[in-house]
Structure formats: structure tokens, C-alpha cells
Design brief:
Number of strands: 5
Structural class: alpha/beta
Helix content: 25-40%
Strand order of the largest sheet: 2-1-3-4-5
Distance between the termini: 17 Å
Number of helices: 3
Length: 119
């Protein structure tokens, strides 16, 4: 079981990323929580516990975890301590800068999937 716990739904992943993920098992989305930038440690820890328990509902999962840094760090630490593999997607960022017809600078970023790496 490969759990995508991020703000990037599986339906928007590239074919290459899906092919790599499916090597770990069936793919499922577990939407990332909306975390206020004003959330305190107690609130974040409650969310960590809630999502930890959601992950435990699956047999032998691998979790692709990316999002708000404090939540991600705390949940990854807890999952790893429970023996659950946690990975992050790696991407190459290609930036093309230009000026449009109105003279306004435009920056376009493309992200090319480069693999998964374990936390």
C-alpha cells in the first residue's frame, strides 16, 4: 500500500511518478490536512495523532509525506518509530524566465519527477 499524504492528488501525478509509486503497492490518496500557520504545538500534535492512526488502518503501508514542515517532521518521526517507511518525492525544478508582450517579467517553473527517497 502506497499512501500519498500530500497536497498533490495522485490524479495530477506524472506517469513516471505513478509507475515508481505503484512498485510499493496499491496507490491511495490521504489528503493533507489544512494547517493554520497560527496552529500551536498542541493542535499540531492532535493532527499528528489523528493522521498516525489513519495510516495504521492500512496493512504495511509506505507513506509519501510532504507538506507543512512541523506536522510533516512530527508525523514522519512517529511513523518511522513505528517501523513504517516514509518517503518524499524528489523533483528537478526547471525555471524559464522571459518577458511577455507587455514587458512584464514572467517566470515559469516545471517540475520533473526524479524518484522517491526515504526520510
Amino acid at each position: 500500500m502506497f499512501i500519498n499524504l500530500s497536497n498533490h492528488a495522485l490524479q495530477n501525478w506524472s506517469l513516471k511518478q505513478k509507475e515508481e509509486a505503484v512498485k510499493y503497492g496499491e496507490l491511495i490518496d490521504l489528503p493533507f490536512p489544512n494547517i493554520s500557520p497560527y496552529a500551536d504545538s498542541v493542535e499540531i500534535d492532535r493532527l499528528v495523532e489523528k493522521y498516525f492512526n489513519k495510516v495504521l488502518e492500512y496493512h504495511n503501508p509506505v507513506v509519501m509525506l510532504q507538506g507543512e514542515f512541523i506536522f510533516t517532521f512530527r508525523l514522519a518521526t512517529k511513523l518511522k518509530a513505528a517501523g513504517i517507511k516514509v518517503v518524499a518525492g524528489r523533483r528537478e525544478r526547471i525555471v524559464v524566465e522571459s518577458v511577455n508582450s507587455e514587458g512584464i517579467p514572467v517566470k515559469k517553473s516545471e517540475f520533473h519527477f526524479a524518484g522517491f527517497m526515504e526520510y
